[in-house]
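User: For documentation purposes, I need each entry recorded in a consistent format: the amino acid sequence on its own, followed directly by the corresponding structure tokens. There are two entries in this batch. Please keep commentary to a minimum and don't merge the entries.

Assistant: Recorded as requested. Entry 1:
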Amino acid sequence: MSFTNKTTSNEIHIHTLRIPAEFEKKEPSPQELSRILSSTEQKRYQRYLAKRKKVEFFLARKFTKDILGARLNVPIYQIDLQPDASGKPFLFLAGKPFPLYFNISHTSGFITCVISEHKYTGIDIEYATGSRDAVMQRFFHPHEIREYRTLPRSRQERRFYTLWTLKEAYLKAIGSGMRTPLNSFWFSIVDHGKTQTATIHFEDPDNPEAGRRFHFLHLQPTAEHFLAVAVKRDKEVQFISHHHERI
């Protein structure tokens, strides 16, 4: 497996992997768990009840550690991912925090992680299961709801998951998780027709500078998967995508 080993400060590297079908139901052996996961990660692994979720968690951690190890030219057993008080994981080497930042997300059939030199970096990927009108009404900002309702039904599912992943990526970047209500900030999106691109406008009243300092990217790696990245940096960033065929 080959990875990009050098970056510049403006590069944001997004790595994706479609989980092979033969891996989705294959739980790792105790030896594999001990080799890849720390004791803390193993406890979290055991808390998952569904086999598929266990496998996703294990593969996501292995995938991310492989990428970080290749980036830093260190063996995987030296890669330690420790959560802070909010639960957001950070990289430690030789027991000390290391200033290379990452974030991980996984869903049915897909794993993704983002690597950058900026602390406030987040990523989210979701598997689409249809439009969620009730969720929009309950959790999203009124501005987002108004825009959603103006769209034809055929475009509402895409808008819902675009918003959902952007919101999750932002919350993961700032490390607040669901402690920050989803309807306390909003995105306004202008779609550009058949190009599948969009202009994203963002406002967080509790963090007025965020709209200027955060950069966002939204991708749709498959017809069913939606992905978003959020990065805080005063200057422009360059998003670079890497899709991996195997783990």
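Entry 2:
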Amino acid sequence: MSIEEDPDDYEDAIIDTARHIITNLASDRYIELLPNMYDRISLYPSFEDEQKIALAYTDEVKRLIINRLVEDGNATKNDLLNWLKEKLEIEYLDIDGILNSLVKLGLIKIASVKGLPSESVFLTNDVFITRTPPVNIIKQAKGKRISETMGTEYLSNVKAYFERYKPNLDDEKTISDIIADTDTYTILNLLRLSPVTRRGLDKVKKKVKDLDKALKKIWSGGIIQVLKDKSGEEYYFLKTDIRIEKFYPEYLIDLIRTSFNNRTVANPVLIEHLRNLKDIYESQHGKGKKKKKEEKGD
């Protein structure tokens, strides 16, 4: 680490790595995972938002927390800890480190609510994960920037794929893992620009530890397809792109209303949740945009 680098930028990746090492200590499996863990730590500060969200979603503990909060809206920290320990059949869990990483991602807020012995955890943003048509490549195929034969076949294949595509939990895990994996993410970003030959893929060899392994993974995930031109040369096409992003959980307003009417959650907790959701909404859609317009007007 250089003197210019901020240790805090590596904190989440280091905490996650330590947890995975402890989990796999008994079987020594952590030894074979160390190279990938080291690479992930060193590259984490340069990760795009979609990579950080995908990495959180591929983590079983964080995914459980997100799904629990999607269902309930909020929970106390102690309740979450006991629930996770029972569900995962473990004795120890660094709940503070895990929750703090989700706070940094903007997915949750933690606050003390008067009358409760433990801090409350509130969902403030949900995660949207799906496959999408690769718009850039489709435009190239329609604009005749790809040979007509390959372009026609490509467009037909993409159309057929998305006509039968239905998002599901297993697929969410598959495509999240492709985004979270630095090797497959490098290939994905290259193919987002244009189709490439094998020689074109070889250009990223220095950035990818095992190109063949990464290609096999991205192929198995149904992300790419290979087409041949008239001369028989193979081109790697992006069959589906991936979209991973946060979105404002408007559905929680109805959940909070139901909890209030049924008196299943204490009013101070619901008020604090509404306050946090209001702050998030205004930062994304309200006062933030209004301020920008006023500045432009000046």
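Summary note for entry 2:
The mean pLDDT is 88.
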